[in-house]
């Protein structure tokens, strides 16, 4: 299993202010679903920050997202390790397959993979 990117998730209702602030550092908005917006560096597209007011389908908002090449394998590894699964593996309408797991420090991690057509 390979990690493709790691994205910090900032919980905030001030998406416009974050867009302006991170824009000063060269970030551009690359995704906006209303409840989550992601900003990326044009020169390093995997350098990203997401700002979210809440999570659309989960009871908690994750602290970070980790995209992997095989989310099903990651889920099995985490389950077998005894880690706390906060949100079971599921497919989302916006094209990702994901689950949430709690890290040893108590942070919620969104582990995801993009579904391919």
UniProtKB/TrEMBL annotation:
An example of a Pfam family matching this protein is: Glyoxalase
Q: Where is the VOC domain?
A: 2-114
> Which SUPFAM superfamilies does the entry mention?
Glyoxalase/Bleomycin resistance protein/Dihydroxybiphenyl dioxygenase (SSF54593)
Record key words, sorted:
Dioxygenase, Oxidoreductase
Extract one GO molecular function annotation from the record: dioxygenase activity
Q: Which superkingdom is the protein from?
A: Bacteria
The record's section on InterPro entries has: Glyas_Bleomycin-R_OHBP_Dase, Glyas_Fos-R_dOase_dom, VOC_core
Q: What range does the record give for the signal peptide?
A: none
Q: What is this protein called?
A: Glyoxalase/Bleomycin resistance protein/Dioxygenase superfamily protein
């Amino acid at each position: 299993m390979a990690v493709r990117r790691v994205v910090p998730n900032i919980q905030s209702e001030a998406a416009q202010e974050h867009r302006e602030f991170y824009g000063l550092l060269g970030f551009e908005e690359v995704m906006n679903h209303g409840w989550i917006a992601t900003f990326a560096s044009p020169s390093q597209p995997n350098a990203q920050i997401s700002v979210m007011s809440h999570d659309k389908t989960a009871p908690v908002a994750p602290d970070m997202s980790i995209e992997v090449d095989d989310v099903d394998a990651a889920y099995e590894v985490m389950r077998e390790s005894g880690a706390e699964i906060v949100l079971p593996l599921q497919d989302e309408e916006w094209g990702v397959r994901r689950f949430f797991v709690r890290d040893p420090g108590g942070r919620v991690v969104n582990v995801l993979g993009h579904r391919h057509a």
